[in-house]
Amino acid sequence: MSDVRIEFDRLREFVKRVFMRLGVREMDAFTVADVLVTADARGIPSHGVARLPRYIRGIREGMMIPDAEPEVVHETPVSARIDGRDGLGQPVSRMAMELAISKALENGIGMVAVFNSNHFGIAGYYAMMALEHDLIGFATTNTYPLVVPTFGRQAVLGTNPIAVAAPASRNRPFVLDMSTSVVTRGKLEVYQRLGKPIPEQWATDENGRPCTDPGRVLENFRARRPGGLLPLGGPDELTGGHKGYGLSMLVEILSGVLATARISAMSYPEGKGSGIGHFFAALDPGIFLPVKKFKADMDLLIDTVRNSEKAEGHDRIFIHGEKEFEQMERSLSDGVPLDTATFDILKSISEEFGVAI
Amino acid sequence: MSDVRIEFDRLREFVKRVFMRLGVREMDAFTVADVLVTADARGIPSHGVARLPRYIRGIREGMMIPDAEPEVVHETPVSARIDGRDGLGQPVSRMAMELAISKALENGIGMVAVFNSNHFGIAGYYAMMALEHDLIGFATTNTYPLVVPTFGRQAVLGTNPIAVAAPASRNRPFVLDMSTSVVTRGKLEVYQRLGKPIPEQWATDENGRPCTDPGRVLENFRARRPGGLLPLGGPDELTGGHKGYGLSMLVEILSGVLATARISAMSYPEGKGSGIGHFFAALDPGIFLPVKKFKADMDLLIDTVRNSEKAEGHDRIFIHGEKEFEQMERSLSDGVPLDTATFDILKSISEEFGVAI
After folding, report:
1. In total, how many domains does chain B have?
2. How far, in Å, CA of A259 to CA of A111, rounded?
């Protein structure tokens, strides 16, 4: 998949300049670029610079206001709610997480919800912002409706990711960043390109039956027919599909209802901003125990799990975030990996905008 | 399964009196009885009065101190940490959730962690305590190690439930109460009794391979051999097993590390209290938006999902907690359902303790 490697700073600078040409303020453009390039650098290309054309279209079609000025509309010592004013998702999310962090440093916890926002990239980016302050970080968002509830066939839920980051001492931090569906749409596109059937646990057809043809599921999305991705746990209660569906509901409650944003089912109305919402939190472990003990005990947990006996055929148990930290290191030393198709997209954007890559 | 029905109050009174005979104070005995009987009444018999013999044994063998007096050892306006002093899990959990609720009513959020505790019953009981105050409730616990991490074969994680309760207006509240494993041990016991193989996604054998023989998995538990239950999402990354494993880690961080409790892998050492921990939180939606709007928008979310199109062969989409509320209503009108085996256990306890049932 990685056919080209581009130096991290150079790629970020390119993306930043493209956004500036679209009317985004320099600081905001830097944030959007940093979130997108970090996704590629961490090995999550589905949320990386390959999405650039969608952002460009979103701004040009008026769905995203490039120079929106988000506003805190409600605030308490431990919480805030921010109106994103239909701007880009990344700058308002950075602002929200910074506010959550400052509240956590002051009062032990900070929770900030955002409404009138747009796609914010990888949830883990914001959760990880807490780490340099020795805080636990948390981020969720609702999204375009792509996921069917257990026993349903209509996509009324988003892929609704949950990200949690917690610092350790000797070890790298724990960084969980997961959609609450089995997989996201990008995985279906990969299988379609490869001409491979998808596992039965991933998606349903327009009748709500498990479907192994990725093309059919994707075509149903495009035609706005029923069908969609399945919640974590799969198609029914036997394997816990109702649990993934419940976690997805939890994300709708935090990022939609609490944030006064649109729930996923009502997001992305024709000709308007997506209206989705996010929820961020930062928690100071020091309000429970000395931070040094917290971090040392995180090491104990991580070491215990990682060093436990491996299943036949496996020689490593991964702690969440580990693979991505290793990818990041390689991206910083050897360049950020991009596949040829994505690099070609960047080259044509480079020409169109007159921004060197 | 339900061969006998006993009036709720009568069953609770019986359980309460048994615990009092074991040296538990009346208020605490009431709490333990209420949590256990509520589990049966809500249709979760795996966590109900059938566990009575285990509690009796736990107290008699000195693992649980019947008259322990839990103590708040650390406190801030939004948090507290409580030493359960090896007492029963239910009374200290009730105390902790009440403290979280009072902090939430005062400061918008309250989080209380508990260490040196024992099995607390159904997590949903405590999350639901927040509802009568129009708060969102949250409860987790770590447990006996029964779950293997992705690519592992040693059970180093608990079944680690997460419960969330959120109030609505016209609708019943949303009550999610889920283990972060595909299933809990009780399900394997049911399949063993029925002589049925279990699905491949549920458990591994002692080599870490998916295992469909429930007897083999249960025997491995008893013999303390490797093998165990799988995290939500199943045996590998293809169907998201690493996500359930990540959620289980999150519960270890909250209920184990933050609480200064034993992590599941180190819980239940021979001849001592289990040393497990819990984490409770209560959140006032009013620190984000008017509570009335929160509850009305919860209705919108619930109605949208419940009324969405059904999958072929299904005529109902369940909101989390709905089945249990309906069971509870039937239990209150017709009596709490117990199977004959459980009722026989209660009768022999009744004779032994001289407490009428």
Report:
1. 2
2. 11
